[in-house]
Amino acid sequence: MPYYRSVGEVPRKRHTQFRQPDGSLYAEELMGQEGFSSDSSLLYHRHLPTAIVAAQEYDPPAWTRVANRPLKPRHLRTHKLDAGGADAVLGRQPLLVNDDVRISYVVADRPSPLYRNAVGDECLYVESGTARVETTFGTLDVASGDYVLVPTSVIHRVVPTSDLLRLLTVEATGHIGPPKRYLSVRGQFLEHSPYCERDVRGPGTPQLVEDSDVEVYVRHRRGWTRHVYAHHPFDVVGWDGHLYPWAFSIHDFEPITGRVHQPPPVHQTFQGPNFVICSFVPRKVDYHPLAIPVPYNHHNVDSDEMLFYTGGNYEARRGSGIEQGSISLHPAGFTHGPQPGAPERAIGADYFDELAVMVDTFRPLDLCEPALSCEDTGYAWTWAGRGKGQPSAVTPSG
């Protein structure tokens, strides 16, 4: 994160003796990115964070993935997926994936196991419900509209505090953070940024859980392992630094608007390796006297565009079957834009009440089994007015 925090008890100087009440040393742990060359934090444990007593391979459910062939826009109805008993980690249903990112959906009704993603950062978006995200750094209470950023290798678990918790999860193969153009050279949010430090929530007081022989599921670069720790990893008495889990509400994103329609980069919220995450929020819209407030037809030749519809009314998609929880995928190689009639209907509008999360990737997204199981197969033909029917028969040209 771009700014420094200190929580709990820490010594005045780093890497110096810091003793427990019985005279023994606290165990200092440095968590740092990019080989000691980027953001880091120092945590102080009651017990050795290195003490494991068992390690066993774990095989999660396997999902096949297929290329988007034939190439066409897709509409996924996540609320049609099986919403049976699941947790927010092992119950994720992968939808879209490439070598940089995996996008999944989960409906959780029980606490997850302790979990460490050693492959990359995670961004969890809360569609509905509430939860407590417990971490080695402390606890975050989250609710509908919250993004939760969990840095690589932070041990955590997600505990629903409502009957059902609906999450969209974005798992990177590197680090996720604010776009560099929003930050000063020293990491402060600049004046033109649509959010700032006041909108960011970090973990509270460390939990100090005492327990032994504690299982932690680890996703790493060669698969999954289940470690058993001699002591509970939530034994941190204090920490300080710039690296920690944090939450930010989409409702605190301040939209950037203009006289004519603004391009999607004004909605950018985070960046990851070869992808960006954007937030479309309720806002005043274009105020030129001849403005057309909905997007123009556009073809991002370098990226696939995934849009998760999470509230309000998305004017540009009216008549396409898009609903709460829908995901649209508009791939590179396809020109996409508003549904027929949307530009005309939007003329004169001064406000859009819409809420959506967009992930643009710079490598093509494959589809996983759960995505195909909830696909609205008529979506691709809706621009031609054939959303409920079948495409016309075509004869390949020679």
UniProtKB/TrEMBL annotation:
Residues at which Fe cation binds: 298, 304, 336
Domain (Homogentisate 1,2-dioxygenase N-terminal): residue spans on this chain: 113-248
Cellular component terms (Gene Ontology): cytoplasm
Active-site positions on this chain: 261 (proton acceptor)
Alphabetical UniProt keywords: Dioxygenase, Iron, Metal-binding, Oxidoreductase
Pfam families listed in its UniProt record: HgmA_C, HgmA_N
Signal sequence region: none
Domain Homogentisate 1,2-dioxygenase C-terminal, residue spans: 275-384
CC cofactor: Fe cation
Residues that bind homogentisate: 314, 336
Molecular functions (GO terms): homogentisate 1,2-dioxygenase activity; metal ion binding
GO biological process, one term: L-phenylalanine catabolic process
Source organism, top-level taxon: Bacteria
InterPro entries (UniProt xref): HgmA_C (IPR046451), HgmA_N (IPR046452), Homogentis_dOase (IPR005708), RmlC-like_jellyroll (IPR014710), RmlC_Cupin_sf (IPR011051)
Record family assignment: Belongs to the homogentisate dioxygenase family.
Protein name, entry field: Homogentisate 1,2-dioxygenase
Organism: Phytohabitans suffuscus
Lineage: Bacteria, Bacillati, Actinomycetota, Actinomycetes, Micromonosporales
Gene (UniProt): hmgA
